[in-house]
């Protein structure tokens, strides 16, 4: 396994109050438990309100009334879960920090599948229920619902929008879409929810049945929709205007990568840490409508921010043509991969390809003494090691170990290793490079498949899951 190694020395105070605070960091786990428990309480409350509205009588009545009653419950539960999805998309800082990207993505996927399934059950059963109790038949009932019931036509449009979101969320679809196209289509979730839910307000008996139900649902709407307005619109706009962010430098980083540095009078006020990322929107003729996520590749210094991106498509290719002075709108900072989640003195930073960018930012920003930090840089070849020389130099000055692992991927095996290391298992190689990995905090960034392989190796090597923090360049 070809490895380039660099070691240096630096000073560090283990008694630092900042480090002691980081060791006690719990990641706001109490808030994670609170939000999960609150969702279950909401679902129980929705079911209780449904039961209080003569649900038992309807269930024991005719076939049509039973189908309609079950349709109402599935629709109400789908509405609550859709609102939970909206809340999760709001990027509320304490939610992101307490859940972390991996748990949040898993919950987002589970709730999304559940809400969509319940919504389709609602549509089918309410149509069958109305058809069973009316004289119009199935197709006549469908036309009657769409044309004559308030909000149903909007709900149909909302359902189509949500169907687009679900379809483009499939893995095979994501592989065929550019990030910009996928991100734009994913924003249709807001449109879908906004169009699909109002019919509940206008015609839903469970919404209008009592003052308690009305107050409950309006409160749920406010709690879930309010943070979207605050954290996805107001806060990013205010931060961008106050910071006055503009491009100051664009620099190629070897073949296939580019670094962009921005600055502004309000940069120092941004609550950003090394390793985090922003959504960057450059106000050029073609780029103003698209935001792209890029991690910092240098620790914030209060004067400027720098990110480094691989040139993999039209959107990232436009970065090379940015001119100094171009205005920038930012959303963020986002991500839980920062020094604040550190609980161990020793740290392992692993980056694959352009995933080394946030690792370099962390390397510059972590408090450390000689031997505390190890950087593993996975590349296809030394010639393609973007930021490799800079990372090695920063490691030398900081007293960290820098190991570059080069080579193409192993054929026919889901591994993080290059072909020359095919004789080793993933965990054997990890322990060979970092024998004390089980005692370290581990930060990862790279392609999803590579990350999964490292996660498996780290667990097998004895690293607890809550000490592995990652950011993946995928969608």
From TrEMBL:
Gene Ontology molecular-function annotations: 2 iron, 2 sulfur cluster binding; flavin adenine dinucleotide binding; metal ion binding; oxidoreductase activity
Membrane topology value: Multi-pass membrane protein
Domain FAD-binding FR-type: 240-340
GO CC annotations on file: membrane
Xref: SUPFAM superfamilies: Ferredoxin reductase-like, C-terminal NADP-linked domain, Riboflavin synthase domain-like
Cofactor: FAD
PANTHER family, A to Z: 1,2-PHENYLACETYL-COA EPOXIDASE, SUBUNIT E, NADH OXIDOREDUCTASE HCR
Protein name: Ferredoxin reductase family protein
Family matches, as InterPro entries: FAD-bd_FR_type, Fe3_Rdtase_TM_dom, FNR_nucleotide-bd, MRET, Riboflavin_synthase-like_b-brl
Main location: membrane
Pfam families: Ferric_reduct
Subcellular location: Membrane
Positions of transmembrane segments: 30-51, 63-89, 110-132, 152-173, 185-203, 215-234
Keyword vocabulary terms for this entry: 2Fe-2S, FAD, Flavoprotein, Iron, Iron-sulfur, Membrane, Metal-binding, Oxidoreductase, Transmembrane, Transmembrane helix
